[in-house]
Specification:
Elements (H helix, E strand, L loop, with lengths): L1 H20 L13 E5 L1 E2 L7 E2 L1 H13 L2 E3 L2 H5 L10 E8 L8 E4 L2 E4 L4 H11 L8 E4 L16 H10 L3 E4 L12 H18 L7 E3 L9 H5 E4 L2 E4 L2 E7 L15 E5 L2 H13 L13 E4 L16 E4 L1
Parallel strand pairs: 1-5, 1-14, 2-3, 4-5, 5-8, 8-9, 10-13, 13-14, 15-16
Antiparallel strand pairs: 6-7, 11-12
The structure holds zinc ion.
Zinc ion binds next to loops.
Length: about 325
């Protein structure tokens, strides 16, 4: 009798272990939605527009453990999903270039990235989990009043912007000083966007801001003003325009995807939790990569949901 019990227990344990070992990667679902998270301050105390460094680290841990991997925003907008097979892309965005997003501290006379700033937290996490990927977009303000002018350390602006660009991060346009674009005429709107780019290029020559996050989420009277143009000798061109809210973004391969209206999720503890729970309960809504940036994997019933103007380089595959 006792022997039977032992055998049954052993078999059960073996089955449980086997089910863990065989936990298959999620099937590709490349018409699912993607979270573009929007952070503001990384600082103390935790508030509506502030996430502490510790809580930001917790967000990264949660995302990693649930199979999310960092995705470049520029690549996403152009229809290139680069995260490994079976994982879900997540985009990190930081608005307003506040000091806690990227700070240098003095270490024996040499500047070192503050481990309590967003970049410091991210870098430490990526070092521990290299397969998390490396990507985030910083929507900077070149001429806002301090402390929001280029992360608030004038002596380090060039060092910071170049470091970001050299290390796989992106810069985005957020206007010169957080202008409400709905309030101004065409000349001012275009100058705000062109000047922001010109300022960034003073530090990182030739760098092109390819995305725009609308201050306050407010569109100019004509969306075309925000897309492309020239003012004061500088040409700008934005391939994606990001809003301040709206939930998870449609897949860049979906008919619903509109690069001029890309929604984001404000990275508040409650909202992030709600969305993670949503995707756990509704896996068919969750984007899962097939691991190949040149293919789009869908089911046989999903063809009608595809964007009619998919980039020609992409091959559609049925799973
Ligand atoms: Zn802003």
């Amino acid at each position: 009798m006792r022997l039977i019990l032992v055998v049954v227990l052993l078999l059960t344990a073996a089955l449980i272990l086997a089910s863990f070992a065989m936990a298959e990667p999620l099937p590709a679902n490349e018409l699912g939605r993607i979270m573009i998270l929007e952070y503001h301050k990384i600082d103390y105390p935790e508030e509506r527009w502030t996430r502490t460094p510790e809580n930001f680290r917790k967000d990264l841990e949660t995302l990693y453990a649930r199979g999310y991997r960092l995705q470049s925003l520029n690549a996403l907008i152009e229809g290139r999903v680069t995260v490994p097979a079976g994982t879900t892309p997540v985009v990190l965005t930081f608005d307003d270039s506040s000091p806690g997003q990227f700070r240098y501290v003095d270490r024996d006379g040499a500047p070192e990235i503050d481990p309590k700033s967003a970049v410091g937290v991210l870098e430490a996490f990526i070092k521990a989990k290299p397969d998390f990927g490396r990507a985030a977009t910083f929507f900077v303000l070149p001429a806002a009043d301090p402390p929001n002018r280029f992360f608030n350390q004038p002596e380090h602006v060039t060092r910071k912007l170049r470091w970001l660009v050299d290390n796989g991060y992106e810069l985005g346009n957020h206007t010169l000083w957080h202008a409400n674009l709905g309030k101004y005429d065409e000349t001012v709107v275009r100058a705000q966007l062109a000047d922001a780019q010109a300022w960034v290029q003073k530090h990182v020559p030739d760098y092109k801001l390819r995305t725009l996050a609308l201050p306050h989420g407010i569109y100019p009277k004509q969306v075309g003003w925000a897309l492309t143009g020239t003012a004061k000798g500088t040409t700008y061109q934005h391939e994606g325009i990001l809003m301040v809210s709206g939930g998870a973004a449609p897949s860049p391969f979906a008919a619903k995807f509109n690069p001029l209206r890309v929604p984001r999720i404000q990275a508040l503890e409650r909202d992030l939790k709600e969305w993670l729970t949503h995707f756990d309960k509704t896996p068919e809504d969750r984007f899962v990569s097939d691991g190949d940036p040149s293919t789009v994997t869908i089911t046989s019933t999903q063809h009608a949901l595809l964007r009619p103007n998919l980039p020609k380089s992409l091959k559609v595959i049925e799973r």
